Amino acid sequence: LDVGTGSGCIAITLACERKDAVLYAVDISEAALTLAHTNAQNFGVADRVSFIRNDLLLNLDFTVDALVANLPYIKISEIADLSKNVRDYEPFLALDGGPDGFQLIERLIGQASDFMPAGAHIFLETGYDQASRTASLLELYNFTDIEITRDLSGIPRIISGKR
Fold first, then answer.
1. What tens digit of pLDDT does each residue of 55-73 get?
2. Residue 49: which residues within 8 A CB-CB, separation 6 or more?
3. Which CATH class is domain 63-163?
4. Where do the H-state alpha helices sit in 43-152?
5. From 10's CA, which of 16, 17, 21, 113 has a CA 20 to 30 Å away?
6. Do 9 and 74 meet the contact criterion of CB atoms below 8 Å apart?
7. % of residues, the chain, pLDDT over 90
8. What distance, in Å, lies between the first and last C-alpha atoms of the chain?
9. Residue 65: which H helix or E strand, with range?
10. Which pTM was predicted?
11. What's the CA dihedral at 120, 126, 131, 135 to 10 degrees?
12. What does the DSSP 8-state code read for residue 89?
């Protein structure tokens, strides 16, 4: 399950790499889902990715082995300071992580603790200063095997765990 799929990059890449996988891609934006579906068609995987308009995990009625998310994690006060090529070409909804940049990540982890079955894995991309907070929140919600992976610039970026 790719939560906050946007253009569908993560779900489509997983579908291309894992031919046996059945994937779900969720986004609150209808425009994002339309683009993601078009991209999935272009890569020949639209038959294996179900696109669902939804607010994170609310009322989803299926289970998954893994959940991935690259949700908006930029503080609303920092959006105006982003480089022009990001700020002017990304939808505001795709950038706005709320007052502290953590609003959607926090909501998702809370929902994931109830939604995900035992043994399922979670992978979250976060902002440059959010890895420790994300790991602590996963621990609070009883996720185990929590790991923080650095990006190519050495910044703690991907936080993973097991339900």
1. 999 999 999 999 999 998 8
2. 8, 11, 12, 15, 23, 24, 25, 36, 40
3. alpha beta
4. 84-87, 92-95, 103-115, 131-140
5. 113
6. no
7. 79
8. 14
9. none
10. 0.92
11. -20
12. T
Q: How many whole angstroms separate alpha carbon 135 and alpha carbon 130?
A: 9
Within a 10 A sphere around the Cβ of 133, how many other Cβ atoms?
Answer: 17
| Mean pLDDT calculated for residue range 142-153 | 98
What is the pLDDT, as a whole number, of residue 92? Answer: 74
**Within its chain, how far is the Cα of 156 from the centroid?**
16
Using the structure block, give the residue that is written with the tokens 């703690």.
156
Q: Find residue 57's DSSP bridge partners.
A: none
Residues in the chain, how many?
Answer: 163
**Under a CB-based contact definition with an 8 Å cutoff, are residues 5 and 33 in contact?**
yes
Helix (H) / strand (E) element for 34: namely helix 30-42
- What's the mean pLDDT when you consider all of the chain? 93
Tokens of 24: 């779900």
Q: For residue range 73-82, what is the model confidence (pLDDT) as tens digits?
A: 877 787 788 8
Residue in 66, 47, 73, 82 with CA at minimum distance from that of residue 2: 66
Neighbours of 79 (CB within 10 A): 17
Question: Hey, where are the domains in the chain?
Answer: 1-54, 63-163
The amino acid sitting at 148 is: I
CB 7 within 8 A of CB 49: no
